[in-house]
Amino acid sequence: MRAFNLQTSKYINSSTKNRSVWVDVLRKVCHTHGIFEPSFDLKKMTLSEIEHAALCPFRFGSLLTTKRPSSIKPLATRLLDNNDETVVDIHLIPGGRFLLTQTDELKVDLWDLGYSPASVIKHLPIASLEPETAVEPDPIISSPIFSLFKTFDLVLGRVPTSLSVSNNICAFQCGRDLTLWDYMADLAVSWKTRFNTINITFSSGCILTYGGRGFDTWVPPELREYPKGGTSPLPTETVSPAPNFNYASCGIDDVFNDGEVIVPHTAWPRGAGRADIINIFLETDKGPMLDSYVVQQLYGVDEPVVVPRFGASIKLSSLDLDDDLPCKDPQEPGRFAGTWFIQPYHTNANDVYVLVTNSANLKENEAVRLSIDAELFTLCPMSGRLCTMDSMGDHIRVLDFIVPN
Known about the structure:
The chain has helices at residues 2-15, 19-33, 47-65, and strands spanning 76-81, 87-92, 98-103, 108-112, 127-129, 162-166, 169-174, 177-182, 187-192, 199-203, 206-210, 214-218, 236-237, 244-246, 261-262, 276-284, 287-296, 305-308, 314-315, 335-337, 340-346, 352-358, 361-371, 376-380, 385-389, 395-400. The protein is mainly beta. Strands 6-7-8-9-13 form a 5-stranded mixed sheet, with no helix packed on it. Strands 15, 16, 17, 18 and 19 form a 5-stranded antiparallel sheet that branches. Strands 1-26-25-24 form a 4-stranded antiparallel sheet, with no helix packed on it. Strand 16 and strand 17 form a beta hairpin. Helix 2 (19-33) crosses helix 3. It is globular.
């Protein structure tokens, strides 16, 4: 028996040093976490780099929860020079390697931060997009470029008030007309909503539109050919909303205005087999609140069902934040890191916190501070990487909380 155990241990130990095993593990992690798999150049990465990338989501979740820290500090910090341009928005592509920045002149730059905290950040972006062109980047080719892909012409005078993108579908609203446009197939459909929408999100095959009292769920009709050139409006379909819901934080007479209901957009998939979670930040008379819901497809029911996830709203100021600070507009959707759901948010003191929820125990929540003095931020929980910009706007800080062993 002892000889058998020794042979088994030797086999397991050798398997953990097998490159093909770790490549398979990393690909599965990308699939289950919604990571942009081309972030990792598997042919050039070392075994330790592949192992580090595969374990990052689990190590970051463990870091946030094992000792229940009130704050954590990065283990590596790098600086990205913004070349004296005024950056107004930053966004990490899931995987943490590629960063998109937008300037006040609507220029978009794509940066390669590397998949290792030791990577040297190049002084120039790998691709840039001027405002007069549209986006179709490929950051993996040797000389990435942005090129015009498709155009949707609006009727003169109609300006979208809400917009959201998920996979190859763009949703936008003009007045009460909600339009879905599949820019890959160049098909579209439009219908009238019950109210002017504050936010739009995609969830479990349905569209959610958010108003002053609550939100509607819509099962969209089939997309079809539409009039081109913007000479005539898209014909509207007759669509009735699936169930509509009041906000859990909303009293019977409460009505929220634009800017008081914030729903972080989820443009990238969260990963296969993951719960479809919607977090809604509301500015109420009681202070900033977080309502959390999960969208479920029940057996035998054609339409998705939205149910409160925590059973009640969370008062953000009750989560032991320093100085009991309120919340600013969230800039990032929540994502999974291992079994933990990580929802970043911003305080009025420009501190960056994450609300960490155990997916096995939905009422177990912890607030952890990641950074201070961050006018802008973007977080990739799957890589343990946070990018921030202070109020001076001189440079972007690239903070890594997980480094290779």
